[in-house]
Amino acid sequence: MKYDLIEAKGQYALILRGEHMTQYAVVCGLDQETGSWDWTCCYYDFGKFSELTKAEALFKALDYYLMRTNDNHISWARMSEIATVLKDGLIEDSEEEAYRYMADVAELSNTEAEYFGLDMEQYKVATDGDADGHTPPSSTGGDYSPAHPWDAPGMSSSDFI
Fold first, then answer.
1. Rg of the chain over CA atoms, in angstroms?
2. Could you give the C-alpha distances from 72 to 15, 67, 134, in angstroms and in order?
3. Quick count: other Cβ atoms within 10 Å of Cβ 131?
């Protein structure tokens, strides 16, 4: 079978394959001299007969390849699962506080909030304005936080050098 080698490590290889080069595949036991391999671990079609774009197919194949070749890699699917479990735990503890946390600390975009299945009306309420009236520390607001103590009246940066 015709293929172009993208990357190989150990027994695994990431290749672009097919007569029309419309599949990314992760294969095991690639013999570059004969152009054959022991087996295909996974493949992702792209093009006019696939729902995946070329970039999406490459991403999925690369994610799988890294899972097999890099001990520190966490797959996109696993990270999504972890994030969803954490989101569900936050909401279970206190839905209102969870939405505020996701809006203020995680700063989820609307697309990200929709991905996690949040109630978009409730999320919009959490992101509109500063509902709890909390203002972050700022020397311009008269709050001389530890980040800028030299802005306090009577202090200068030379006092800290």
1. 25
2. 22, 8, 39
3. 13
**pLDDT for 43-101, tens place per residue?**
999 998 899 999 999 999 999 999 999 999 999 999 999 999 999 999 999 999 999 99
Top-confidence residue, 82 or 154: 82
The rounded distance, in Å, linking the Cα atoms of 130 and 51 is 41
Report the alpha-carbon distance of residue 28 to residue 34 in Å, rounded: 14
Counting Cα atoms < 13 Å in the Cβ hemisphere of 83 gives 16
In which region does residue 147 sit, left (phi positive, over 0), alpha (psi from -120 to 50) or beta (all else)?
Answer: alpha
CA distance 16 to 23: 6
Give me the pLDDT at residue 20, please.
87
Regarding pTM above 0.85, the answer is: no
Residue 146 has pLDDT above 80, yes or no: no
Q: Per residue in 74-103, is it b (16+ CB within 10 Å) or e — as a string?
A: eeeeeeeeeeeeebeebbeeeeeebbbbbb
Residue 12, classified by CB atoms within 10 Å of its CB into exposed (0-12), middle (13-18) or buried (19+), is buried
